[in-house]
Amino acid sequence: MFTVLDMAQPDKLEEAFEILTKRKNNTILGGCAFLKMSKKRIGTGIDLSRLNLDYIREDNGFIVIGAMAALRDLETNALLRDAFGGILSQSVRNIIGVQFRNGVTVGASVYSRYGFSDLLTALLVLDTEVELYNGGKMPLRDFLQKPYEKDILVQLRIEKNQRLAAFSSFRKSASDFAVLNIAVSNLDKQWTIAVGARPGRAVIAETASRALSQGHLSAEEIEAAAKIAADELSFGTNTRGTAGYRKALCQVLVKREIMEVLQCKSN
Amino acid sequence: MQIELTVNDKLVTWDVENDEFLADTLRAHGFLSVKKACDTSCCGLCTVWMDGKPILSCSILAMRAHGKKITTIEGVSQAAEEFARILTAEGAEQCGFCSPGFIMNVLAMKNELDNPTEDEIIHYLTGNLCRCTGYMGQLRAVKTYLGVA
Ligand SMILES: Cc1cc2nc3c(=O)[nH]c(=O)nc-3n(C[C@H](O)[C@H](O)[C@H](O)COP(=O)(O)OP(=O)(O)OC[C@H]3O[C@@H](n4cnc5c(N)ncnc54)[C@H](O)[C@@H]3O)c2cc1C
Ligand code: FES
Ligand code: FES
Protein backbone atom coordinates (compact mmCIF):
# COMPACT_ATOMS: atom_id res chain seq x y z
CA MET A 1 0.00 0.00 0.00
CA PHE A 2 1.29 3.47 -0.76
CA THR A 3 1.71 6.00 2.01
CA VAL A 4 1.33 9.77 2.03
CA LEU A 5 3.15 11.65 4.77
CA ASP A 6 1.82 15.16 4.13
CA MET A 7 -0.98 16.51 2.00
CA ALA A 8 -0.94 19.74 0.01
CA GLN A 9 -3.97 21.26 -1.70
CA PRO A 10 -2.54 24.19 -3.65
CA ASP A 11 -4.74 26.89 -5.16
CA LYS A 12 -2.27 27.68 -7.91
CA LEU A 13 -0.40 25.56 -10.42
CA GLU A 14 2.74 27.47 -9.65
CA GLU A 15 2.55 26.40 -6.03
CA ALA A 16 1.78 22.79 -7.02
CA PHE A 17 4.88 22.67 -9.22
CA GLU A 18 7.04 24.19 -6.53
CA ILE A 19 5.98 21.50 -4.04
CA LEU A 20 6.39 18.78 -6.69
CA THR A 21 9.99 19.70 -7.40
CA LYS A 22 10.99 20.40 -3.82
CA ARG A 23 11.51 16.73 -2.91
CA LYS A 24 12.07 13.63 -4.98
CA ASN A 25 9.18 11.72 -3.40
CA ASN A 26 6.60 14.51 -3.64
CA THR A 27 3.90 13.31 -6.01
CA ILE A 28 0.83 14.54 -7.86
CA LEU A 29 -2.34 12.65 -6.90
CA GLY A 30 -4.78 11.90 -9.71
CA GLY A 31 -7.65 9.56 -8.88
CA CYS A 32 -5.09 7.40 -7.00
CA ALA A 33 -6.30 4.06 -8.39
CA PHE A 34 -2.93 3.32 -9.91
CA LEU A 35 -0.93 4.81 -7.04
CA LYS A 36 -2.93 2.64 -4.66
CA MET A 37 -1.47 -0.50 -6.21
CA SER A 38 2.09 0.73 -5.72
CA LYS A 39 4.25 0.67 -2.61
CA LYS A 40 5.28 4.26 -3.13
CA ARG A 41 6.22 6.24 -0.03
CA ILE A 42 5.06 9.71 -0.90
CA GLY A 43 6.45 12.67 1.01
CA THR A 44 3.92 15.32 0.10
CA GLY A 45 0.90 14.26 -1.91
CA ILE A 46 -0.27 17.08 -4.13
CA ASP A 47 -4.03 17.17 -4.61
CA LEU A 48 -5.05 19.20 -7.64
CA SER A 49 -8.77 19.30 -6.71
CA ARG A 50 -8.75 23.01 -5.92
CA LEU A 51 -7.45 23.98 -9.36
CA ASN A 52 -10.74 23.27 -11.15
CA LEU A 53 -9.08 21.16 -13.84
CA ASP A 54 -12.04 18.85 -14.39
CA TYR A 55 -13.46 20.54 -17.50
CA ILE A 56 -14.13 19.43 -21.07
CA ARG A 57 -14.96 22.37 -23.31
CA GLU A 58 -14.62 23.90 -26.72
CA ASP A 59 -12.26 26.82 -26.99
CA ASN A 60 -11.30 28.63 -30.19
CA GLY A 61 -11.33 25.62 -32.48
CA PHE A 62 -9.94 23.21 -29.87
CA ILE A 63 -11.51 20.69 -27.56
CA VAL A 64 -9.78 21.25 -24.27
CA ILE A 65 -9.76 18.58 -21.58
CA GLY A 66 -8.51 19.36 -18.07
CA ALA A 67 -6.19 16.93 -16.29
CA MET A 68 -8.69 16.14 -13.53
CA ALA A 69 -11.57 15.25 -15.88
CA ALA A 70 -12.63 11.68 -15.13
CA LEU A 71 -12.54 8.97 -17.81
CA ARG A 72 -16.29 8.60 -17.35
CA ASP A 73 -16.65 12.29 -18.28
CA LEU A 74 -14.89 11.54 -21.59
CA GLU A 75 -17.30 8.71 -22.14
CA THR A 76 -20.51 10.66 -21.56
CA ASN A 77 -19.55 14.17 -22.74
CA ALA A 78 -21.79 15.24 -25.66
CA LEU A 79 -19.01 17.16 -27.41
CA LEU A 80 -16.72 14.13 -27.40
CA ARG A 81 -19.42 11.67 -28.36
CA ASP A 82 -19.95 13.71 -31.51
CA ALA A 83 -16.39 14.58 -32.45
CA PHE A 84 -14.17 12.24 -34.50
CA GLY A 85 -16.70 9.41 -34.65
CA GLY A 86 -16.82 9.41 -30.85
CA ILE A 87 -13.53 7.52 -30.57
CA LEU A 88 -12.42 9.11 -27.31
CA SER A 89 -15.66 8.12 -25.62
CA GLN A 90 -15.38 4.66 -27.13
CA SER A 91 -11.75 4.17 -26.20
CA VAL A 92 -12.36 4.37 -22.44
CA ARG A 93 -15.62 2.45 -22.20
CA ASN A 94 -14.01 -0.92 -21.51
CA ILE A 95 -11.75 0.21 -18.70
CA ILE A 96 -12.96 -1.73 -15.62
CA GLY A 97 -16.41 -0.29 -14.84
CA VAL A 98 -18.45 2.90 -14.59
CA GLN A 99 -17.58 3.43 -10.90
CA PHE A 100 -13.87 3.08 -11.64
CA ARG A 101 -14.03 5.53 -14.55
CA ASN A 102 -15.82 8.07 -12.35
CA GLY A 103 -12.71 8.12 -10.17
CA VAL A 104 -9.68 7.98 -12.48
CA THR A 105 -8.32 10.96 -14.34
CA VAL A 106 -7.31 11.92 -17.86
CA GLY A 107 -4.16 13.70 -16.68
CA ALA A 108 -2.75 10.63 -14.94
CA SER A 109 -3.70 8.37 -17.84
CA VAL A 110 -1.78 10.48 -20.34
CA TYR A 111 1.11 11.52 -18.12
CA SER A 112 1.85 7.92 -17.14
CA ARG A 113 2.13 6.78 -20.78
CA TYR A 114 1.04 3.23 -19.98
CA GLY A 115 1.68 0.73 -22.76
CA PHE A 116 -1.79 -0.76 -22.31
CA SER A 117 -3.50 2.62 -22.55
CA ASP A 118 -6.64 2.61 -24.68
CA LEU A 119 -7.00 6.38 -24.47
CA LEU A 120 -3.47 7.13 -25.73
CA THR A 121 -4.01 5.03 -28.84
CA ALA A 122 -7.13 7.01 -29.72
CA LEU A 123 -5.59 10.39 -28.88
CA LEU A 124 -2.61 9.64 -31.13
CA VAL A 125 -4.63 9.66 -34.35
CA LEU A 126 -6.15 13.06 -33.51
CA ASP A 127 -4.37 16.41 -33.57
CA THR A 128 -3.65 16.24 -29.85
CA GLU A 129 -1.43 18.57 -27.93
CA VAL A 130 -0.28 18.01 -24.35
CA GLU A 131 0.11 21.05 -22.15
CA LEU A 132 2.55 20.69 -19.27
CA TYR A 133 2.99 23.32 -16.59
CA ASN A 134 6.76 23.50 -16.97
CA GLY A 135 7.38 21.84 -20.35
CA GLY A 136 4.75 23.87 -22.19
CA LYS A 137 2.70 22.68 -25.16
CA MET A 138 3.81 19.91 -27.48
CA PRO A 139 2.24 17.39 -29.83
CA LEU A 140 1.25 14.17 -28.05
CA ARG A 141 3.55 12.15 -30.28
CA ASP A 142 6.56 14.20 -29.09
CA PHE A 143 5.45 13.91 -25.47
CA LEU A 144 5.33 10.11 -25.79
CA GLN A 145 8.97 10.05 -26.83
CA LYS A 146 10.24 12.26 -24.06
CA PRO A 147 11.89 10.72 -21.00
CA TYR A 148 9.92 11.01 -17.74
CA GLU A 149 10.41 14.38 -16.10
CA LYS A 150 8.59 15.69 -13.09
CA ASP A 151 5.93 18.03 -14.38
CA ILE A 152 2.21 18.64 -14.15
CA LEU A 153 -0.01 17.76 -17.05
CA VAL A 154 -2.47 20.65 -17.09
CA GLN A 155 -4.70 19.88 -20.07
CA LEU A 156 -5.03 18.29 -23.49
CA ARG A 157 -5.88 20.38 -26.53
CA ILE A 158 -7.36 18.65 -29.54
CA GLU A 159 -7.84 20.53 -32.78
CA LYS A 160 -11.53 20.35 -33.62
CA ASN A 161 -11.53 19.57 -37.32
CA GLN A 162 -13.39 17.26 -39.68
CA ARG A 163 -11.10 14.31 -39.00
CA LEU A 164 -12.93 10.98 -39.18
CA ALA A 165 -11.72 8.22 -36.94
CA ALA A 166 -12.33 4.68 -35.77
CA PHE A 167 -11.01 2.78 -32.76
CA SER A 168 -11.07 -0.81 -31.70
CA SER A 169 -9.59 -2.67 -28.81
CA PHE A 170 -9.22 -6.42 -28.79
CA ARG A 171 -9.87 -7.89 -25.36
CA LYS A 172 -10.16 -11.41 -24.03
CA SER A 173 -12.93 -10.29 -21.74
CA ALA A 174 -14.67 -7.02 -20.96
CA SER A 175 -12.74 -4.90 -18.45
CA ASP A 176 -9.47 -6.82 -18.90
CA PHE A 177 -6.42 -5.04 -20.36
CA ALA A 178 -6.39 -4.98 -24.16
CA VAL A 179 -4.40 -7.51 -26.19
CA LEU A 180 -4.10 -4.86 -28.90
CA ASN A 181 -5.50 -1.39 -29.57
CA ILE A 182 -5.95 0.13 -33.02
CA ALA A 183 -6.98 3.61 -34.08
CA VAL A 184 -7.19 5.00 -37.61
CA SER A 185 -8.09 8.50 -38.76
CA ASN A 186 -8.38 10.48 -41.96
CA LEU A 187 -8.39 14.20 -42.74
CA ASP A 188 -8.40 15.26 -46.41
CA LYS A 189 -5.81 12.96 -47.96
CA GLN A 190 -3.89 12.30 -44.79
CA TRP A 191 -4.28 8.99 -42.94
CA THR A 192 -2.93 8.10 -39.50
CA ILE A 193 -2.72 4.61 -38.05
CA ALA A 194 -1.82 4.04 -34.39
CA VAL A 195 -1.32 0.76 -32.56
CA GLY A 196 -1.18 0.36 -28.77
CA ALA A 197 -0.91 -2.42 -26.19
CA ARG A 198 1.70 -4.06 -28.42
CA PRO A 199 2.09 -4.45 -25.34
CA GLY A 200 4.47 -1.49 -25.55
CA ARG A 201 3.32 2.10 -25.68
CA ALA A 202 1.09 3.24 -28.55
CA VAL A 203 2.94 4.38 -31.68
CA ILE A 204 2.06 5.59 -35.13
CA ALA A 205 2.71 3.19 -38.00
CA GLU A 206 4.46 5.88 -40.04
CA THR A 207 5.25 3.94 -43.22
CA ALA A 208 1.81 2.39 -43.42
CA SER A 209 0.14 5.76 -42.80
CA ARG A 210 2.19 7.34 -45.59
CA ALA A 211 1.50 4.49 -48.02
CA LEU A 212 -2.23 4.79 -47.41
CA SER A 213 -2.18 8.58 -47.80
CA GLN A 214 -0.41 8.36 -51.16
CA GLY A 215 -2.56 5.65 -52.73
CA HIS A 216 -6.08 5.43 -54.09
CA LEU A 217 -7.58 3.34 -51.31
CA SER A 218 -8.16 0.31 -53.49
CA ALA A 219 -8.80 -2.98 -51.68
CA GLU A 220 -5.24 -4.11 -52.51
CA GLU A 221 -3.71 -0.90 -51.21
CA ILE A 222 -5.64 -1.11 -47.96
CA GLU A 223 -4.55 -4.72 -47.52
CA ALA A 224 -0.97 -3.71 -48.26
CA ALA A 225 -1.04 -0.81 -45.77
CA ALA A 226 -2.32 -3.13 -43.05
CA LYS A 227 0.52 -5.55 -43.76
CA ILE A 228 3.09 -2.75 -43.72
CA ALA A 229 1.78 -1.66 -40.30
CA ALA A 230 2.13 -5.20 -38.92
CA ASP A 231 5.65 -5.48 -40.39
CA GLU A 232 7.02 -2.09 -39.38
CA LEU A 233 5.94 -2.20 -35.70
CA SER A 234 7.46 -4.31 -32.97
CA PHE A 235 5.31 -6.55 -30.80
CA GLY A 236 6.02 -8.30 -27.54
CA THR A 237 4.75 -11.26 -25.56
CA ASN A 238 2.97 -11.11 -22.21
CA THR A 239 0.29 -13.15 -20.45
CA ARG A 240 -2.39 -11.82 -22.81
CA GLY A 241 -0.77 -12.83 -26.07
CA THR A 242 2.42 -13.60 -27.95
CA ALA A 243 4.23 -11.20 -30.28
CA GLY A 244 3.23 -13.33 -33.28
CA TYR A 245 -0.42 -13.33 -32.27
CA ARG A 246 -0.41 -9.54 -31.87
CA LYS A 247 1.25 -9.08 -35.26
CA ALA A 248 -1.41 -11.22 -36.94
CA LEU A 249 -4.18 -9.36 -35.12
CA CYS A 250 -2.65 -6.02 -36.08
CA GLN A 251 -2.92 -6.67 -39.79
CA VAL A 252 -6.56 -7.73 -39.58
CA LEU A 253 -7.67 -4.96 -37.23
CA VAL A 254 -5.87 -2.16 -39.08
CA LYS A 255 -7.61 -3.20 -42.27
CA ARG A 256 -10.96 -3.32 -40.48
CA GLU A 257 -10.57 0.13 -38.96
CA ILE A 258 -9.52 1.66 -42.30
CA MET A 259 -12.70 0.20 -43.80
CA GLU A 260 -14.66 1.60 -40.88
CA VAL A 261 -13.34 5.12 -41.52
CA LEU A 262 -14.12 4.78 -45.24
CA GLN A 263 -17.64 3.75 -44.31
CA CYS A 264 -18.02 6.93 -42.22
CA LYS A 265 -16.72 8.98 -45.17
CA SER A 266 -19.34 7.59 -47.52
CA ASN A 267 -22.15 8.35 -45.06
CA MET B 1 -6.65 15.82 8.33
CA GLN B 2 -10.20 16.78 9.13
CA ILE B 3 -12.98 16.41 6.57
CA GLU B 4 -16.54 17.60 6.63
CA LEU B 5 -19.02 15.72 4.52
CA THR B 6 -22.61 14.58 4.33
CA VAL B 7 -23.23 10.88 4.74
CA ASN B 8 -26.78 9.77 3.99
CA ASP B 9 -28.04 13.32 4.55
CA LYS B 10 -26.24 13.74 7.87
CA LEU B 11 -23.42 16.24 8.22
CA VAL B 12 -20.34 14.69 9.85
CA THR B 13 -16.80 15.81 10.69
CA TRP B 14 -14.20 13.06 10.64
CA ASP B 15 -10.47 12.81 11.15
CA VAL B 16 -8.81 10.81 8.39
CA GLU B 17 -5.25 9.86 7.47
CA ASN B 18 -3.75 11.32 4.30
CA ASP B 19 -3.54 7.89 2.69
CA GLU B 20 -6.83 6.50 4.01
CA PHE B 21 -9.36 5.28 1.47
CA LEU B 22 -13.04 6.11 1.82
CA ALA B 23 -14.21 2.49 2.20
CA ASP B 24 -12.10 2.08 5.33
CA THR B 25 -13.33 5.39 6.75
CA LEU B 26 -16.96 4.45 6.15
CA ARG B 27 -16.54 1.03 7.74
CA ALA B 28 -14.71 2.52 10.71
CA HIS B 29 -17.74 4.75 11.28
CA GLY B 30 -20.16 1.87 11.23
CA PHE B 31 -21.26 1.77 7.59
CA LEU B 32 -20.65 -1.94 7.43
CA SER B 33 -22.68 -2.44 4.26
CA VAL B 34 -19.60 -1.22 2.39
CA LYS B 35 -17.64 -4.34 1.46
CA LYS B 36 -14.19 -4.82 0.00
CA ALA B 37 -13.25 -7.90 -1.96
CA CYS B 38 -10.20 -7.04 -4.07
CA ASP B 39 -6.98 -5.05 -4.07
CA THR B 40 -7.16 -4.08 -7.71
CA SER B 41 -10.24 -1.84 -8.08
CA CYS B 42 -12.04 -4.47 -10.09
CA CYS B 43 -14.87 -6.05 -8.04
CA GLY B 44 -17.27 -3.14 -7.40
CA LEU B 45 -18.30 -4.39 -3.94
CA CYS B 46 -17.26 -1.09 -2.36
CA THR B 47 -19.56 1.01 -4.57
CA VAL B 48 -21.10 4.08 -2.90
CA TRP B 49 -22.24 7.38 -4.41
CA MET B 50 -20.33 10.62 -4.31
CA ASP B 51 -22.60 13.53 -5.19
CA GLY B 52 -24.93 10.97 -6.74
CA LYS B 53 -22.34 9.25 -8.95
CA PRO B 54 -21.27 5.67 -8.26
CA ILE B 55 -17.61 5.38 -7.26
CA LEU B 56 -15.28 2.74 -5.87
CA SER B 57 -14.83 3.80 -2.26
CA CYS B 58 -11.79 1.50 -1.99
CA SER B 59 -9.97 3.57 -4.58
CA ILE B 60 -10.89 7.13 -3.63
CA LEU B 61 -9.02 8.87 -0.84
CA ALA B 62 -11.24 9.79 2.11
CA MET B 63 -10.00 13.38 1.94
CA ARG B 64 -11.55 13.71 -1.51
CA ALA B 65 -14.98 13.32 0.16
CA HIS B 66 -14.53 16.67 1.90
CA GLY B 67 -17.51 18.89 1.08
CA LYS B 68 -19.21 16.05 -0.78
CA LYS B 69 -22.39 14.05 -0.35
CA ILE B 70 -21.77 10.36 0.22
CA THR B 71 -24.60 7.87 -0.04
CA THR B 72 -24.38 4.25 1.10
CA ILE B 73 -27.13 1.65 0.87
CA GLU B 74 -28.24 2.64 4.39
CA GLY B 75 -29.28 5.98 2.89
CA VAL B 76 -31.52 4.54 0.18
CA SER B 77 -33.06 1.69 2.11
CA GLN B 78 -36.51 1.94 0.57
CA ALA B 79 -35.39 1.70 -3.06
CA ALA B 80 -32.81 -0.92 -2.08
CA GLU B 81 -35.46 -3.08 -0.45
CA GLU B 82 -37.75 -2.81 -3.45
CA PHE B 83 -35.00 -4.02 -5.77
CA ALA B 84 -33.74 -6.62 -3.29
CA ARG B 85 -37.17 -8.27 -3.23
CA ILE B 86 -37.08 -8.65 -7.00
CA LEU B 87 -33.51 -9.91 -6.84
CA THR B 88 -34.36 -12.63 -4.33
CA ALA B 89 -37.52 -13.55 -6.22
CA GLU B 90 -35.31 -14.25 -9.24
CA GLY B 91 -33.09 -16.44 -7.05
CA ALA B 92 -30.26 -14.10 -7.94
CA GLU B 93 -28.86 -13.69 -4.48
CA GLN B 94 -26.78 -16.40 -2.94
CA CYS B 95 -24.10 -15.46 -0.42
CA GLY B 96 -25.18 -11.82 -0.77
CA PHE B 97 -21.71 -10.39 -0.16
CA CYS B 98 -21.75 -8.51 -3.50
CA SER B 99 -25.26 -7.15 -3.06
CA PRO B 100 -24.79 -3.76 -1.36
CA GLY B 101 -22.31 -2.60 -4.01
CA PHE B 102 -24.31 -4.15 -6.82
CA ILE B 103 -27.56 -2.58 -5.66
CA MET B 104 -25.94 0.84 -5.32
CA ASN B 105 -24.78 0.60 -8.92
CA VAL B 106 -28.17 -0.61 -10.16
CA LEU B 107 -29.88 2.34 -8.43
CA ALA B 108 -27.29 4.72 -9.90
CA MET B 109 -27.97 3.30 -13.34
CA LYS B 110 -31.70 3.79 -12.86
CA ASN B 111 -31.04 7.46 -12.11
CA GLU B 112 -28.65 7.92 -15.04
CA LEU B 113 -30.10 5.93 -17.95
CA ASP B 114 -33.57 6.02 -19.49
CA ASN B 115 -34.92 2.69 -20.69
CA PRO B 116 -31.50 1.09 -21.19
CA THR B 117 -31.08 -1.80 -23.61
CA GLU B 118 -29.64 -5.11 -22.42
CA ASP B 119 -26.21 -4.10 -23.78
CA GLU B 120 -26.35 -0.80 -21.94
CA ILE B 121 -27.32 -2.55 -18.70
CA ILE B 122 -24.47 -5.03 -19.01
CA HIS B 123 -22.03 -2.25 -19.83
CA TYR B 124 -23.09 -0.25 -16.77
CA LEU B 125 -22.79 -3.27 -14.48
CA THR B 126 -19.54 -4.72 -15.85
CA GLY B 127 -17.60 -3.44 -12.86
CA ASN B 128 -19.67 -5.49 -10.38
CA LEU B 129 -18.37 -9.00 -9.94
CA CYS B 130 -20.34 -11.82 -8.34
CA ARG B 131 -18.76 -15.18 -7.65
CA CYS B 132 -22.00 -17.06 -6.94
CA THR B 133 -24.77 -16.32 -9.37
CA GLY B 134 -23.60 -16.32 -12.97
CA TYR B 135 -25.28 -12.97 -13.61
CA MET B 136 -28.36 -14.19 -15.55
CA GLY B 137 -30.70 -13.97 -12.57
CA GLN B 138 -29.34 -10.54 -11.74
CA LEU B 139 -29.95 -9.38 -15.29
CA ARG B 140 -33.56 -10.63 -15.17
CA ALA B 141 -34.09 -8.83 -11.87
CA VAL B 142 -32.61 -5.58 -13.18
CA LYS B 143 -34.82 -5.66 -16.27
CA THR B 144 -37.91 -6.32 -14.20
CA TYR B 145 -36.99 -3.53 -11.80
CA LEU B 146 -36.39 -1.03 -14.60
CA GLY B 147 -39.53 -2.10 -16.41
CA VAL B 148 -37.61 -3.03 -19.56
CA ALA B 149 -38.06 -6.80 -19.32
C1 LIG C 1 -6.77 -2.27 -12.01
C2 LIG C 1 -6.57 -1.27 -13.11
C3 LIG C 1 -6.90 -1.62 -14.41
C4 LIG C 1 -6.73 -0.71 -15.46
N1 LIG C 1 -7.07 -1.07 -16.75
C5 LIG C 1 -6.88 -0.20 -17.77
C6 LIG C 1 -7.20 -0.54 -19.11
O1 LIG C 1 -7.66 -1.65 -19.41
N2 LIG C 1 -6.98 0.38 -20.08
C7 LIG C 1 -6.47 1.62 -19.80
O2 LIG C 1 -6.29 2.41 -20.74
N3 LIG C 1 -6.17 1.99 -18.55
C8 LIG C 1 -6.35 1.10 -17.52
N4 LIG C 1 -5.99 1.46 -16.24
C9 LIG C 1 -5.38 2.79 -16.01
C10 LIG C 1 -6.43 3.80 -15.63
O3 LIG C 1 -7.28 4.04 -16.73
C11 LIG C 1 -5.78 5.13 -15.22
O4 LIG C 1 -5.04 5.62 -16.29
C12 LIG C 1 -4.88 4.97 -14.02
O5 LIG C 1 -5.59 4.39 -12.95
C13 LIG C 1 -4.28 6.30 -13.59
O6 LIG C 1 -5.30 7.18 -13.23
P1 LIG C 1 -5.47 7.68 -11.73
O7 LIG C 1 -6.33 8.89 -11.81
O8 LIG C 1 -5.87 6.55 -10.89
O9 LIG C 1 -3.95 8.12 -11.41
P2 LIG C 1 -3.07 8.05 -10.08
O10 LIG C 1 -2.96 6.67 -9.57
O11 LIG C 1 -3.52 9.09 -9.13
O12 LIG C 1 -1.67 8.55 -10.71
C14 LIG C 1 -0.90 7.76 -11.58
C15 LIG C 1 0.41 8.51 -11.86
O13 LIG C 1 0.17 9.71 -12.59
C16 LIG C 1 0.72 10.85 -11.90
N5 LIG C 1 -0.19 11.98 -12.17
C17 LIG C 1 -1.52 12.05 -11.90
N6 LIG C 1 -2.05 13.19 -12.39
C18 LIG C 1 -1.03 13.88 -12.95
C19 LIG C 1 -0.94 15.14 -13.63
N7 LIG C 1 -2.01 15.92 -13.84
N8 LIG C 1 0.28 15.53 -14.08
C20 LIG C 1 1.37 14.75 -13.89
N9 LIG C 1 1.34 13.55 -13.27
C21 LIG C 1 0.16 13.12 -12.81
C22 LIG C 1 0.77 10.43 -10.46
O14 LIG C 1 1.75 11.16 -9.75
C23 LIG C 1 1.12 8.96 -10.58
O15 LIG C 1 2.50 8.79 -10.78
C24 LIG C 1 -6.18 0.56 -15.19
C25 LIG C 1 -5.86 0.93 -13.86
C26 LIG C 1 -6.05 0.04 -12.82
C27 LIG C 1 -5.71 0.47 -11.43
S1 FES D 1 -13.00 -3.50 -3.15
FE1 FES D 1 -12.92 -4.32 -5.15
S2 FES D 1 -13.33 -2.58 -6.34
FE2 FES D 1 -13.33 -1.76 -4.38
S1 FES E 1 -24.08 -13.61 -4.36
FE1 FES E 1 -22.16 -14.28 -3.65
S2 FES E 1 -20.79 -12.94 -4.64
FE2 FES E 1 -22.65 -12.37 -5.48
TrEMBL record, chain A:
An MF annotation (GO) of this entry: FAD binding
Ranges in a coiled coil: none
Protein's UniProt keywords contain Oxidoreductase: yes
Positions of the FAD-binding PCMH-type domain: 1-163
Keywords: FAD, Flavoprotein, Oxidoreductase
Keyword Flavoprotein: yes
UniProt cross-references to InterPro entries, sorted A to Z: CO_DH_flav_C (IPR005107), CO_DH_flav_C_dom_sf (IPR036683), Diverse_Substr_Oxidored (IPR051312), FAD-bd_PCMH (IPR016166), FAD-bd_PCMH-like_sf (IPR036318), FAD-bd_PCMH_sub2 (IPR016169), Mopterin_DH_FAD-bd (IPR002346)
PROSITE patterns in the record: FAD_PCMH
EC number: 1.5.99.14
PANTHER family: XANTHINE DEHYDROGENASE SUBUNIT C-RELATED (PTHR42659)
Name listed for the protein in its UniProt record: 6-hydroxypseudooxynicotine dehydrogenase complex subunit alpha
Originating species: Desulfosporosinus acididurans
TrEMBL record, chain B:
Domain named 2Fe-2S ferredoxin-type: residues: 1-76
Origin superkingdom: Bacteria
GO terms, molecular function: 2 iron, 2 sulfur cluster binding; metal ion binding; oxidoreductase activity
Pfam family, one: Fer2_2
Entry keyword Metal-binding: yes
InterPro entries: 2Fe-2S-bd, 2Fe-2S-bd_dom_sf, 2Fe-2S_ferredoxin-like_sf, 2Fe-2S_ferredoxin-type, Beta-grasp_dom_sf, Diverse_Oxidoreductases
EC number: 1.2.99.2
UniProt keyword annotations, A-Z: 2Fe-2S, Iron, Iron-sulfur, Metal-binding, Oxidoreductase
Alphabetized Gene3D superfamilies for the sequence: 3.10.20.30, [2Fe-2S]-binding domain
Enzyme kind, highest EC tier: oxidoreductase
Protein name: Carbon monoxide dehydrogenase small chain
